[in-house]
Fold this sequence. Notes:
Radius of gyration: 18 Å
Bound molecules: nicotinamide-adenine-dinucleotide
CATH architecture: 3-Layer(aba) Sandwich
Number of helices: 8
Order of helices and strands: EHEHEHEHEHEHHHE
Shape: globular
Mean pLDDT: 95
Amino acid sequence: MRLKGKVAVATGVCGGIGQSIVRKLVDEGARVVAVDLSQDSLDELKAGYGDEVTVTTADVTNYQDVEAMITTAIKKYGQVDIVINNAGIAFPKPLLDHDPDKDFNAITAVNQKGVYHGILAAGKAMQKQGNGGVIINTSSVYGNMASELSFTYNVSKAAVDMMTKCAALEYGPQKIRVCAVAPGRVDTPMLHQYKDLGLWEHIRREQMRDEFTTPEEIANVIAFLASDEANCINGTTVYASDGFENFKYPLKSG
Ligand SMILES: NC(=O)c1ccc[n+]([C@@H]2O[C@H](COP(=O)([O-])OP(=O)(O)OC[C@H]3O[C@@H](n4cnc5c(N)ncnc54)[C@H](O)[C@@H]3O)[C@@H](O)[C@H]2O)c1
């Protein structure tokens, strides 16, 4: 139980990776404030847990909502030790089809500004507590790789990587670590959009293991980063991607 006695807040918990994050944090002994947009989906999630999980709605694009989710953790469990900024959206679309009044802002608001809100609200609360903490942001290999159909998504994840570094530097004196995890291709509802585009088999074949990374595998890395075992990891993005970013269409031998 690497997180016994810790209190965590995680966003995007009703999605593929988020559900696994909550499961893993609880299995490691943490109490968790689980955050997403829809009360119905949160109620469904909550049904699988007891008092160790509290659900609350928040839209991460709204700073007051994000502050409120941190306050919920402090009111309910007395403290906040870990904040996981995991909520994200993606809409595969060619750049030339973008509506300049909509597309860039929609993704940036959640993936970039939402993470900024989480870093800021968590930092303020942890500074006030005075005993450090850990902030983990869900990035992507696409924060560091170009790809078609995902211009704004990639830009937003590059911003997540840079916010992670800058916040770690500013929060270091408060003993607050800030890390990011960068998955490659994880089988979640977000990725299923590629089925609709007829690209599912194509992206599956890109995987080193010939299979997608699982949400549980990403949650394992996040739980490790949140634990004291990862005390020397700070201000960096940890790739949890099966090496996806290092190889182009690896040859399959056998
Ligand atoms: N699935 C992948 O292959 C993959 C790869 C790399 C990175 N990621 C990242 O992992 C994270 C989780 O993605 P996932 O694959 O589980 O996707 P998902 O679509 O299954 O889940 C995303 C969750 O975020 C929530 N959300 C969206 N907008 C929100 C908002 N404004 N406020 C609060 N919650 C909001 C959604 O309701 C949903 O429950 C995202 O940041 C995503 O960019 C996913």
